[in-house]
Amino acid sequence: HVQLVESGGGSVQAGESLSLSCSVSGFYGANMGWFHQSPGNGCEKVATIDELGTRKYAESVKGRFATSRDYPKSMLYLQMDDLKTEDTATYYCAAAPDYLQPTGCPRLSGPGTQVTVS
């Protein structure tokens, strides 16, 4: 049973930073990632990381966001710097980020955490 729980969301001003965390249990696969979804829009894959530490980012967040993984602590992180208003969304931690629902949202994800940038 995979359980993912995000934390660290909040409301910030443009240009500020936030750090998201995801507690992972029941998943021992190689790939994890982050998605976001804003009202009226579908899910967008924001960042992924594999077992070698190879990271990939959406063009919209390259140079501003960084994801990392702590295997011993079973945690996934997303550092978000220089936040923009368009980053406002619900952020989801995802296991096996290529395993998607027909909607394009991840099948294995947490309940999400809200990030609001004004």
Question: Main traits of this protein?
Answer:
118 residues, mainly beta, six-stranded mixed β-sheet, four-stranded antiparallel β-sheet
Please provide a brief summary of the model:
By secondary structure, this protein is an all-beta fold.
Structure description:
The chain is mostly beta strands and 118 residues long. Helix content is 0%, strand content 47%. It has no helices and 10 strands. It has a 6-stranded mixed sheet, with no helix packed on it. A 4-stranded antiparallel sheet has the order 1-3-8-7, with no helix packed on it. Strand 5 and strand 6 form a beta hairpin. It starts with a strand and ends with a strand.
Listing every helix as H and every strand as E from the N terminus to the C terminus, the arrangement reads EEEEEEEEEE
Strand order of the largest sheet: 2-10-9-4-5-6
What integer value in Å does the Rg equal? 13 Å
DSSP strand content? over 45%
Share of residues in helices: under 10%
Lay out the secondary structure.
Elements: E1 3-7, E2 10-12, E3 18-25, E4 32-37, E5 43-49, E6 55-57, E7 65-70, E8 75-80, E9 89-95, E10 113-117
Parallel strand pairs: 2-10
Antiparallel strand pairs: 1-3, 3-8, 4-5, 4-9, 5-6, 7-8, 9-10
